[in-house]
Specification:
The structure holds two protein chains of two kinds. Chain A is of the alpha+beta class. Chain A has helices spanning about 15-25, 75-85, and strands spanning about 5-10, 30-40, 40-50, 55-60, 70-75. The mean pLDDT of chain A is about 90. Classes of the chains: A alpha+beta, B mainly beta.
């Protein structure tokens, strides 16, 4: 990856499916998943990778409402803008 | 020395702000394996419990979990469960008989005398296979039996993605010092 890596975390009120579509459109592939417990809640944490850039998406498991996946991006400024725009942030 | 707990979003955004301020800082990370029966099948949400449905059953979240068939828990020294064994009682949710090991992951950063931390538990990944095993209950020649294995999550999925210029130190234990000097 060319350029400096930047960091950004966003929490958006959009369905996970929309986040996944947005990531796949810009070439990120699902690499691994893990179930984590944080704040007494179960979360599904998914790691997406494209070259040296990584994006993790954590979504609460179960009937929680509203669902607001946490998206953590470590990548170029361009990637961050595309993801934020793609999920309506 | 105040301690401030953050969630993932807050912790990452705090790191981003530190990076943008050009402040020098160090991130500490502690990953420790725990097998203290903190997590059992009764308290899991349905989506997670589905991964165990080959070997156990329950009516709903926080209901008693029973073994559907005999199986061996290979992570816990080959512990054998019989069909209809109570694996996690609704009346003892804090003390499951069948439990899930996990990594306790703790990230922290020290800035201006304060410690900002984010912690989470990463559950091991269950895998159920059928194997030929020998045991007193299975006879001398052995028999095919369901075996529950747990695979540790990969480090890459446990890690918080941070730019290369952020230095992350792995630590075994963090000693939290109480500073009484401000009392005088």
């Amino acid at each position: 990856m060319k350029g400096v890596q930047k960091l950004k975390s966003i929490s958006v009120l959009v369905p996970l499916e929309r986040v996944q579509i947005s990531l796949s459109e810009i070439g990120f592939l699902l690499d691994d998943t893990v179930t984590i417990v944080s704040d007494g809640k179960f979360w599904n944490k998914m790691l997406y990778v494209r070259g040296a850039e990584t994006i993790s998406v954590s979504e609460e498991i179960g009937d929680a409402y509203p669902k607001d996946p946490i998206i953590t991006i470590c990548g170029s400024k361009m990637t961050i803008s595309k993801v934020v725009k793609g999920v309506g942030g | 020395m105040p301690l401030y707990e953050c969630n993932e979003h807050q912790f990452v955004e705090n790191i981003r702000r530190l990076l943008e301020s050009k402040e020098r800082f160090l991130v500490n990370r502690k990953i420790v394996l725990h097998d203290d029966a903190k997590y059992g099948p009764a308290t899991m949400p349905d989506q997670e419990f589905k991964r165990y449905e080959t070997i156990c059953t329950r009516k709903s979240v926080n209901s008693t979990v029973y073994a559907k068939l005999p199986f061996v828990d290979s992570f816990h020294g080959g512990r054998m469960y019989d069909e209809e064994d109570n694996l996690h009682a609704a009346s003892a949710l804090l003390f499951p008989r069948m439990s899930v090991p996990y990594y306790r992951v703790e990230y922290s950063v020290n800035v201006w005398g304060g410690t900002y931390f984010f912690t989470f538990d990463a559950l091991f990944d269950p895998k159920i296979v059928i194997e030929k095993r020998t045991a007193r209950k299975l006879g001398k020649s052995g028999a095919l039996v369901h075996v529950l294995r747990y695979n540790a999550p990969e480090e890459r999925v446990l890690a918080i993605n941070l730019p290369k210029e952020v230095m992350v130190f792995d630590v075994k234990h963090m000693v939290r010092v109480i500073d009484h000097t401000s009392n005088f």
